[in-house]
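Morning run. Coffee first, then this:
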Amino acid sequence: MTPLAENLRGAALMMAAMAAFVLNDTLMKLVSTDMNLFQSIFLRGIGTTAFFLVVAWYQGVLRFRPARADQRIMAWRTLGDMGQMVCFLTALFHMPIANVSAILQSLPLAMTFAAAVFLKEPVGIRRYTAIGVGFIGVLLIVRPGTEGFNAYSLVALTTVIFVVLRDLSTRRLDRSVPTIFVTLITSIAVTALSGTVSIFQGWAEIQPGNLLLLGGAALFVSFGYMFIVMGMRTGDIAFISPFRYTMLIWALLIGLFVFGDVPRPLTLLGAAIIVASGIYTFYRERKLAKDGTP
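And here it is:
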């Protein structure tokens, strides 16, 4: 049994990772008024790639050569990561940060459903019910067909699909493939793609202030990845994973105090339903691990 101190350390690292990701999102949203999407991704990507390159060099994995099967899986994973990044930032540039973050909280539910469908993992009626209830929470946030509907909500939902593709691909990778190697390859691919597209979109003049914001975004997203890996390797996953939902708290606070976004009651209700459904799903998965009851 993992000591309580280890679990608390893992939970603290997970909360720090979520805070770092939201701070990255905040800085990226701030520069969106002055430069286009792919230009900002490219400039941030230069910083993140440099960071991951140094870490990969330090760990001695730069010369690692994955097997052919893992190369194909990494290609799918990279596609998923590029797709989720473009969709997420597109939605973020046009929606309140809390709304986008709330929709993304449905990811654990989507992962449970996808694992059952594609990986044939056992999922019982209770977890399927939790997934259905969580989807109701998503609908309360998106509110399709209403006057307040924002089409970019669908883009945020598409982000979830791409993240599921990325994470399912990650789970199929051989354990011998170093995490930092996979992260570095993805960062290089995203940076190269965004740089190519930004050439055709045209570049906006880079203000020194925006360059500082992008540098900060690169730093926060890099530390976010590092903290989340450290957190997941520190304590029990069932104890630590629910602390992912602290991202929503950070997003609500920053949305309110930085951007002046006051969330609607239905958005808060939908977010609460998604979080409750996700936590229940984690609880059922932990129970399954103990007694084999889905």
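The chain is about 80% helix and 0% strand. Good start to the day.
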